[in-house]
Amino acid sequence: MKKIIFLLLLSLTMVTTVAAQEAAFTSAVARYRTAKTASAKVEMVKHNKAMTKSTSSTGTLSMKDPDKVAIVCNGGKDQLVMNGNTFTMVMGGHKRVASAKTASQFAAFKAVLLSVLNCGKTDISKVQGVKVTTGGGNVIITMTPTAQKHLMFTSFVLTIDRKTGALETLTLNSKRGYTKYTFSGFRFGAAVNDKVFLP
Q1: The whole model's pTM is what?
Q2: What is the rounded distance in angstroms from the CA atom of residue 130 to the CA atom of residue 143?
Q3: What is the signed CA dihedral for 13, 15, 21, 26, rounded to 10 degrees?
Q4: Among residues 115, 127, 141, 125, which one has the least CA distance to residue 33?
């Protein structure tokens, strides 16, 4: 009997925690309700476990409601672009294209980015592989694909400032290392050129 009560209390605690984390996320992205675009400066750091040094470059972040996000660095030689269901990655000038409809690693990523842009209307608590936590004044969203074979990335981690709604960092982890984008000078309602979403 005591074990049953303990399990019930544990379940209630977990449900309450999940609800609180989801509420923190929804609150953090509320600013996007009125702002249909956003932009920021970007510092990109690439770390390869096989190399002793990391490489870095700068660029820009552009976001546009309802489903467009572009991170362009290193004079366009490195890009991460979401345009609807299509994800385009340009790494060192080499382009790779994936669809959120067929690539599990990008399905959760798209759901989270859509939820940011539509101020939490997309319920990411129901998206498999997505976990929301809080810490250091930020909301942290970790996306881990369920299938780990033949994936470009093992996880994505997005941090959002709880008060301002600005994106703070985005980290793409892989078996070889990671790519981390750090955003600064975040501006809501900024002018965005649609050409950046067509790499």
Answers
A1: 0.87
A2: 5
A3: -150
A4: 115
Structure tokens at 62: 């552009």
3-state secondary structure of 112: helix
Tokens (6 digits) for 95? 């382009």
**Distance (Å, whole) CA 155 – CA 108:** 10
DSSP labels for 143-185?
E--S--TT-S-SEEEEEEETTT--EEEEEEE-SSEEEEEEEEE
Length reported for the chain: 199
In this predicted structure, the answer to whether residue 7 has a pLDDT above a threshold of 70 is: no
Structure tokens at 110: 């798209």
Sheet holding 155-161, edge to edge: 94-99, 86-91, 78-83, 68-73, 55-64, 37-48, 177-188, 167-173, 155-161, 138-143, 130-135
Give residue-wise pLDDT tens across range 159-189. 999 999 999 999 999 988 999 999 999 999 9
Rounded average pLDDT over 91-114 = 88
Tell me if residue 117 falls in helix, strand or coil: helix
Rounded to whole angstroms, the Cα distance separating 118 from 114 reads: 6
